[in-house]
Known about the structure:
Keywords: ATP-binding, Nucleotide-binding, Transport. This is ABC transporter ATP-binding protein. The chain has helices spanning 2-14, 56-63, 86-89, 107-116, 122-135, 151-163, 181-196, 208-214, 232-237, 254-262, 286-297, 311-319, and strands at 16-27, 30-41, 45-49, 71-76, 79-80, 92-95, 169-173, 200-204, 217-222, 225-230, 241-249, 266-271, 275-281, 301-307. With 325 residues, the chain is α/β, with parallel strands linked by helices. The strands form 3 sheets. The chain has a 6-stranded mixed β-sheet with strand order 6-7-8-3-9-10. Strands 2-1-4-5 form a 4-stranded antiparallel β-sheet. The protein has a 4-stranded antiparallel β-sheet with strand order 12-13-11-14, covered by helices on one side. α4 (107-116) packs across α5 (122-135) and α4 (107-116) packs parallel to α6 (151-163). The chain is elongated, with a radius of gyration of 25 Å. Residues 1-14 have low confidence and may be disordered.
Amino acid sequence: xxxxxxxxxxxxxxxxxxxxxxxxxxxxxxxxxxxxxxxxxxxxxxxxxxxxxxxxxxxxxxxxxxxxxxxxxxxxxxxxxxxxxxxxxxxxxxxxxxxxxxxxxxxxxxxxxxxxxxxxxxxxxxxxxxxxxxxxxxxxxxxxxxxxxxxxxxxxxxxxxxxxxxxxxxxxxxxxxxxxxxxxxxxxxxxxxxxxxxxxxxxxxxxxxxxxxxxxxxxxxxxxxxxxxxxxxxxxxxxxxxxxxxxxxxxxxxxxxxxxxxxxxxxxxxxxxxxxxxxxxxxxxxxxxxxxxxxxxxxxxxxxxxxxxxxxxxxxxxxxxxxxx
Length: 325
């Protein structure tokens, strides 16, 4: 029984790229991580969300053993992570939010330098550097220095430097900040391609649509601990907010508006003379009931739309709308 249990536990552990259990970290008297838990499966893109000061960066630094912690455990790729786990760290790639390249070196020289931190022999690096340049689409810019690159190209260089050694686990910290839509799309497609090639991705961003687009599972954390986790749809089901219904109309009378506002699933209904906007709780007949009232009252209306809750709605409901530093 003990042998079977150990084999089962080992198989479970190795199926997780990141396993964080009950992590506690203080900065002086401030509790930064409060029994924090995180489990990222191998081969998935896992989204980590949280407002400023929620503990995301501290958690990532503890996972990489760049910060010490008071209690709890961290395992990466099935093995305990320590500050001296150099062979394990070679299997990890980190793309920081702030671009970290050398302005004196060309694109190729930058990528080659970061590759040399993991692959000592120059002959072994050449193909890896060529592959990384091609992966981020910087072939025609390989002789440029970073100062000549646009913001989007600079972000792509930053990514190439972090993935050139073909890591098994890659941590992206807001890689699309201040880039144009074309570059953002190229970066997101590249991240999905890395996953398809076998890498595991931990992805942080304040762009909720990105998280919803590429992430298999998502965690929202605040005050140093998990407050919600699941797929995007599972997270949306956790909040009270349902669909938003918008109706274009010019002749909605006060009595019909009052009838709308009195519906048990309606949390708010406003009419500005041109549009009726209704916020609803979850329900299967919300739109049908709204249409019934409009038809019964004889209200003429044009375009009608129904918008389901977004991940941004989930984030704001769970973490609050107060500004964070």
